[in-house]
């Protein structure tokens, strides 16, 4: 019982980070946007993008561990061929990972599924991506909406200074950030109704 | 400092879900794996089982001082010649020794026996070899010195002399990687 209690505490406590750390700022805002989409709009998170990255990394580390064990059991130079294969595979996978993070993921931190209430039509897909450049203070949030039935995509993005959402101590003010996310999302909804 | 003593810095970890936690562990694994793969890659490229060694004694002064880093290669096609600096291991002992080749006896089939001596020593290495051993052979050679970096190896010597310091540094680095979110 106490375990779930502390978990809930950790989630509800106001998020406090080092306000000068750009990565922490971006992560805090991304997490807050995630919460809005999943909790307030009742969407389900689709994990396939993150799972892809985890898979590439796991395979890479697997090659490295295999090389370690093989070399321990068959000391160099007997293990030369195996080592060459593992080293080349590892660095190749690192290259694949970089390409994956840069082009496939491209700042996306959430893929959420909006389930159809009737349970008949395919889910709408909401994709959230963000950009916060190093040493910059403008956080740009992009929302991409893909209609489940027509498969058509619509994008909207808006940037604000992070100073709007964090106080002097580095605590995130959710009351200021949540309306921004809702507004951005609703603007896509209105477009939908317009069509 | 008080931030470190509070558990504030662990809040970030508590906020992570299972996938993010696994990714933090993977991150740590990838850093270790990258270092490992670079080391194994060097082993393959140089042909030596220990491509980088630290000079541990002053027996090769003034060429090498204690704490210098040496890059080795061990290509079998390159013959060992008198005057070359070789790194070798005595059978039964782990520590690599960096000395110069003094004399060589070579057979026609390419097998050879050689004697070594440190530049700064007054006698040859026969006192260091295993009891009854008078010559070294190719199989004892870890590699030949091809390049060197001065002073850099002092850190390794320090870490070996004070293992607690080594574990402390590694533990701090490990914890930092596991907690810090990309």
TrEMBL record, chain A:
Membrane-topology annotation of the record: Multi-pass membrane protein
InterPro entries xrefs: Spc2/SPCS2 (IPR009582)
Pfam families, sorted: SPC25
The organism's place on the tree of life at top rank: Eukaryota
GO biological process entries: protein targeting to ER; signal peptide processing
GO molecular function, one term: peptidase activity
Cell compartments where the protein resides: Endoplasmic reticulum membrane
CC per GO annotation: signal peptidase complex
Keywords of this entry: Endoplasmic reticulum, Membrane, Transmembrane, Transmembrane helix
Transmembrane intervals: 52-70, 82-100
Function: Component of the signal peptidase complex (SPC) which catalyzes the cleavage of N-terminal signal sequences from nascent proteins as they are translocated into the lumen of the endoplasmic reticulum. Enhances the enzymatic activity of SPC and facilitates the interactions between different components of the translocation site.
Similarity remark: Belongs to the SPCS2 family.
Protein's name in the database: Signal peptidase complex subunit 2
UniProtKB/TrEMBL annotation, chain B:
Hydrolase as UniProt keyword: yes
Keyword Protease attached: yes
Compartment(s): Endoplasmic reticulum membrane
Catalytic reaction equation(s): Cleavage of hydrophobic, N-terminal signal or leader sequences from secreted and periplasmic proteins
Alphabetic keyword roster: Endoplasmic reticulum, Hydrolase, Membrane, Protease, Signal-anchor, Transmembrane, Transmembrane helix
Domain (Peptidase S24/S26A/S26B/S26C): residue spans on this chain: 39-125
GO MF annotation: an example: signal peptidase activity
One Gene Ontology term from the biological process aspect of the record: signal peptide processing
Mode of membrane association: Single-pass type II membrane protein
Gene3D superfamilies found in the cross-reference section: Umud Fragment, subunit A
Superkingdom of the source species: Eukaryota
E.C. numbers: 3.4.21.89
GO cellular component, one term: signal peptidase complex
Top EC group: hydrolase
Main localisation: endoplasmic reticulum
Transmembrane portions of the chain: 21-39
Family classification: Belongs to the peptidase S26B family.
Subunit structure: Component of the signal peptidase complex.
Function: Catalytic component of the signal peptidase complex (SPC) which catalyzes the cleavage of N-terminal signal sequences from nascent proteins as they are translocated into the lumen of the endoplasmic reticulum. Specifically cleaves N-terminal signal peptides that contain a hydrophobic alpha-helix (h-region) shorter than 18-20 amino acids.
Protein name: Signal peptidase complex catalytic subunit SEC11
Lineage of the species this protein comes from: Eukaryota, Metazoa, Spiralia, Lophotrochozoa, Mollusca
């Amino acid at each position: 019982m106490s375990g779930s209690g502390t978990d809930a505490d950790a989630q509800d406590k106001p998020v406090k980070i080092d306000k000068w750390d750009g990565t922490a700022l971006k992560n805090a805002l991304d997490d807050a946007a995630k919460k809005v989409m999943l909790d307030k709009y009742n969407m389900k998170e689709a994990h396939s993008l993150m799972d892809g990255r985890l898979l590439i990394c796991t395979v890479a580390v697997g090659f490295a561990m295999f090389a370690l064990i093989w070399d321990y059991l068959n000391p160099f130079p007997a293990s030369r061929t195996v080592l060459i294969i593992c080293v080349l595979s590892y660095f190749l996978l690192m290259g694949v990972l970089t390409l994956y993070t840069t082009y496939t993921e491209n700042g996306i931190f959430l893929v959420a599924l909006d389930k159809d209430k009737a349970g008949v039509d395919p889910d709408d897909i909401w994709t959230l991506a963000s950009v916060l450049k190093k040493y910059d203070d403008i956080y740009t949030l992009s929302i991409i909406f893909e209609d489940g039935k027509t498969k058509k995509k619509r994008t909207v993005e808006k940037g604000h200074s992070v100073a709007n959402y964090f106080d002097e101590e580095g605590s995130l003010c959710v009351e200021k950030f949540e309306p921004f996310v809702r507004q951005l999302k609703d603007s896509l909804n209105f477009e939908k109704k317009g069509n | 400092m008080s931030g470190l003593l509070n558990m504030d810095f662990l809040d970030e970890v508590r906020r992570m879900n299972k996938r993010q936690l696994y990714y933090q562990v993977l991150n740590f694994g990838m850093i270790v794996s990258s270092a490992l793969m670079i080391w194994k890659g060097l082993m393959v490229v140089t042909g030596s089982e220990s491509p980088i060694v630290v000079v541990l004694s002053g027996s090769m002064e003034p060429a090498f001082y204690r704490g210098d880093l040496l890059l080795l290669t061990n290509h079998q096609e390159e013959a060992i010649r008198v005057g070359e600096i070789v790194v070798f291991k005595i059978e039964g002992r782990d520590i690599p020794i960096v000395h110069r080749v003094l004399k060589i006896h070579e057979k026609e089939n390419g097998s050879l026996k050689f004697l070594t001596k440190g530049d700064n020593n007054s006698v040859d290495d026969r006192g260091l070899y295993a009891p009854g051993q008078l010559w070294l052979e190719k199989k004892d050679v870890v590699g030949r010195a091809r390049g060197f970096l001065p002073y850099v190896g002092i850190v390794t010597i320090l870490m070996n002399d004070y293992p607690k310091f080594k574990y402390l540094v590694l533990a701090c680095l490990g914890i930092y990687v596991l907690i810090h979110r990309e």
